[in-house]
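Subject: Sanity check before I submit

Could someone independently write out the structure tokens for this chain? I want to compare against mine line by line before I put it in a report. The sequence has 197 residues.
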Amino acid sequence: MTSKSRPHSLILASRSPRRRYLLEQAGLTFSVIPSTLDESSVPVSPPENHVRTLAKAKAVKVAELYPESWVIGADTLVLTGDAVLGKPDTAVQARQMLEALSGKTHRVLTGYCICCKAAGRSFSETVETKVLFKTLSESEIDWYINTSEPYDKAGGYAVQGLGTFLVKRIEGSYTNVVGLPVCEVMEYLLKEGVVQR
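---
Independent answer below. Compare away.
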């Protein structure tokens, strides 16, 4: 599948290398223009709504600069119970997150938005995936937090990286856990004729 050939006809409004990789693997041609949205300016709401609202705000901010383009925005949260796990800044935070996830099922929510200002089209949705972690030993946690991997990932792990050994079962979209539900995104882009078979 290829996207239309106009400059910036499809834009990923994210600096996430994982989202970029997923879209490249899907065969898309696109530009990367990260949104400059101040996420703290978006009022907090229930997680399912919040990730969708953030994704839309990110996409719209870039779409205002490139009104003829189709823009994809996304935001991901990891939840264990009612607690939202962000990106750990320290080894202590990473350890606490991994201990909280060990042996339990948690939820990964990704909100995404696809919009084109000139076309007057906008679609947003939240996709949920359930992830079961194996029971982690202290030495496994020690090893993992001493890699560089946990520190820029929601929940403190990367399912597509070294953290693959942490995951016992996934219920739902794998790519959603990586950072973007590619199946749903592609279905919408195909429906709108943004990409062609």
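---
OP: Matches mine. For the report I'm noting this point. Residues 2-196 form a domain with the Maf protein fold (CATH 3.90.950.10).
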